[in-house]
Write a structure and sequence with these properties.
eight-stranded antiparallel β-sheet; single chain; Cathepsin D, subunit A, domain 1; six-stranded mixed β-sheet; 4 helices; 2 domains; 420 residues
């Protein structure tokens, strides 16, 4: 269903081929807890915008929103569509939790609620997990659920992304959450029509995820061209016709033609069909910056686990399971030995492309103090039939989303402390 003319007139272009602006922004710092990450805005040059991020379990950028701009911490999520920020009004200020990065609509001259009579506020719009509705103030209300059970709900609004006084988007649609189960907002980056990149007409973006075991957890995020892309290996994305109706298929995700998994010199005996969507959509393999762990369907997970048992089985924690999804776990004291025995892990794609997704102890992620797990979970525990490549297997590499050419680029890098 097309957007209303009102909304179309509001959506603006952020980057365009004729844009010759060269803008820079100072680094800002945000305190983080062990379960959070924050990001700061750096600079934008003639061909690309640069945003460095700090990392724990999420990739988060600090984005300037509103007029004048308020710096909003937002999780970069290539697995979801709607962007939203944490909102409050003046009456809520005294009850705000200090860990939450709030946006104050009263301080922005460009903030506007979406009225109920727009196309997007009609029930059964497929862009939202629950039907939109009209609240008592005649503003459009939304609710958005995620696969991990988290929720954000509030009003749909339009607001500008104000990168500088001379470089500002027109108003884009986003959510103004008044209730959520997260401390940060969300920057929706999938291929849906309401995602940030779709509305701002950004055809390319990339990020470099730092090693989470390092002392410097700052990486880098680009909007537009990446100067390192000449060295990237590219994998063509799988796309699906809009007419296809499959209950387990996410047509808006970044779907990759994965072929297999290699651990050390041993290519696991996994049928390539396991990584391809069947007629129902089950088996789709997606790359998702918003997922911490990687998830595999049963056949693939079982083969990986069997190889781990062969290599390091006696050192596994008996009867331990993390978050009911991952059971290849070890005491931290043996992590170095475990890493040496496992070696490298590679994900294999079409045309012979192999991507190193972890080596040695770097294959393990700390899930609680003194416990490390291979960063792979069972996707059936998420009530999904998909394979998801999470950010734990995107460490120390550039990942570029090239929408114009419908491909994903990968480039080995030391991402910790990377400078623009």
């Amino acid at each position: 269903m097309p957007l209303s003319l009102l909304l179309l007139s509001l959506f603006g272009v952020l980057f365009s081929p004729s844009n010759s602006l060269s803008l820079s922004f100072p680094l800002t710092s945000h305190s983080v807890s062990s379960q959070e990450a924050s990001l700061s805005l750096s600079s934008k040059t003639k061909s690309h915008g640069k945003l460095p991020f700090q990392y724990s379990n999420a990739l988060v950028v600090s984005v300037p929103i509103g007029s004048p701009p308020q710096q909003m911490d937002m999780v970069v999520d290539t697995g979801s569509q709607l962007s939203w920020i944490q909102c409050h009004g003046k009456v809520r200020r005294k009850s705000v939790k200090p860990m939450i990065n709030w946006f104050d609509p009263y301080l922005s001259s460009s903030f506007s609620f979406l009225p109920c009579n727009t196309t997007l506020c009609r029930p059964r719009i497929p862009d939202f997990t629950l039907p939109t509705s009209c609240d008592p103030t005649r503003h459009c209300h939304y609710s958005y659920f995620y696969a991990d059970g988290t929720l954000a709900e509030g009003n749909l609004v339009t607001e500008k992304f104000t990168f500088s006084s001379s470089f500002t988007t027109r108003s884009l649609l986003l959510g103004c959450a008044t209730a959520s189960t997260q401390n940060r907002g969300m920057l929706g980056m999938n291929t849906g029509r309401l995602s940030f990149i779709s509305q701002a007409k950004i055809s390319k973006f990339s990020y470099c995820v730092p090693d989470r075991t390092g002392s410097d957890l700052t990486g880098l995020f680009y909007l537009g061209d990446n100067p390192n892309s000449a060295k990237f290996k590219y994998v063509n994305m799988l796309t699906f016709p809009k007419s296809r109706r499959s209950p387990n298929l996410d047509k808006l995700a970044y779907t990759l033609p994965m072929k297999g998994i290699r651990i050390g010199n041993n290519k696991l005996n996994i049928s390539p069909a396991v990584f391809k969507p069947d007629p129902s959509g089950a088996g789709q393999t997606m790359i998702d910056s918003g997922s911490d762990l990687t998830y595999l369907v049963d056949e693939a997970y079982s083969k990986v686990r069997a190889e781990m048992v062969r290599l390091v089985g006696p050192m596994m924690k008996k009867g331990y399971e993390y978050a009911a999804v991952a059971d290849m776990c070890f005491d931290g004291a043996v992590a170095a030995v475990v890493g040496r025995r496992i070696g490298d892990m590679w994900f294999q794609f079409e045309n012979g492309v192999e991507i190193l997704v972890g080596k040695g102890e770097g294959l393990l992620t700390e899930v609680e103090k003194g416990v490390k797990c291979v960063g792979i979970g069972r996707s059936d525990r998420l009530v999904t039939e998909s394979n998801i490549i999470g950010n734990v297997h995107q460490q120390n590499m550039w990942v570029e989303y090239d929408l114009s050419n419908k491909r994903i680029g990968f480039g080995v890098a030391m991402c910790s402390g990377l400078k623009a």
